[in-house]
Amino acid sequence: MGATIITSEDLMEFKIELLEDIKELLQNSQTQSGKKWLKSNEVRDLLGISPGTLQNLRVNGTLPYTRIGGVLYYEFHEIMEVLEKNKIQNRI
User: Fold this and answer.
1) Is there a contact between 41 and 71 (Cβ–Cβ < 8 Å)?
2) Is the pLDDT of residue 32 over 60?
3) What is the pLDDT, as a whole number, of residue 1?
4) How far is residue 65 from each of residues 16, 25, 44, 59, 76, measured CA to CA in Å?
């Protein structure tokens, strides 16, 4: 088994490829969260909650929504506002 020599040029090339991959991941996540309106399944995935929990958030008025036909829509910025409003700051 032979030894592999890594040059500084190899490291620089790896760095560039890694940065491009990170930029692509960030752009994909921004595109996904850049939507103004989210459907129920997207909200559940975003918050990591069950359908029942999402229903409770609707029923008790915590999370505003819009119903068009049988489809429920939630505004992304309103979800973020609810999260910020309920943020708990730890005092150390």
Assistant:
1) no
2) no
3) 65
4) 43, 29, 13, 10, 10
